[in-house]
Amino acid sequence: MLQSIARNIQLSLHYLMFLRRARNRRGHGIHSPYVFHFVNEIVYDRMFYPEYRVLDAVRRRLRADATPIRMTDLGAPSYRFKQPVRRVKDMLKSSSIRTRYGRLFFRMHCKAVWPRHYGRIGYLGGLQ
């Protein structure tokens, strides 16, 4: 009885690991060489780059920064910030992208697209 429960748990764990790893890694269904390279070399890249530490440190420093900044809205009014004075950490919290997508964006610009050009997603928090 105990062996069958252990075997079922083991099979379940193996299946979950299969589902985690099962991706379109062999290129079935991806016809474009550019998209194939993009998916295999950039999206599924699990390597930890040293630049991630620098980006994470800057992100932590900005999240703790309570320096007030006076903003002038020239476009549509902000519904999140009613006052013209905003804190850096509040702006970063509401406008920056998740760390996971920031790392993907870093890999895109270092490995695939135009490494000498800088790009940005978002509009406020300088680290995006």
List keywords for this structure.
two-stranded antiparallel sheet, mainly alpha, 128 residues, single chain
What's the quick description here?
This protein has 128 residues and is mainly α. 52% of the residues lie in helices and 5% in strands.
Output the radius of gyration. 22 Å
Helix-strand sequence: HHHEEHH
Note the main sheet. Answer: 2 strands, antiparallel
Strand order, main sheet: write it out: 1-2
Based on CA inertia axes, which overall geometry fits? elongated
Give the number of helices.
Answer: 5
Low-confidence runs: none
E-strand count: 2
Helix content: 40-55%
Question: Could you tell me the strand content as a percent range?
Answer: under 5%
Q: CA-to-CA gap between the ends?
A: 54 Å
Query: In terms of structural class, how would the helical and strand content be classed?
Result: mainly alpha
Mean pLDDT: 77
What order do the helices and strands come in, and which of them pair?
Blueprint: H1 2-21, H2 33-43, H3 50-63, E1 68-70, E2 85-87, H4 88-95, H5 99-112
Antiparallel strand pairs: 1-2
Helix pairs in contact: 2-5
Structure description:
This protein has helices spanning 2-21, 33-43, 50-63, 88-95, 99-112, and strands at 68-70, 85-87. With 128 residues, it is mainly alpha-helical. The protein has a domain at 26-112. The chain has a two-stranded antiparallel ribbon with strand order 1-2.
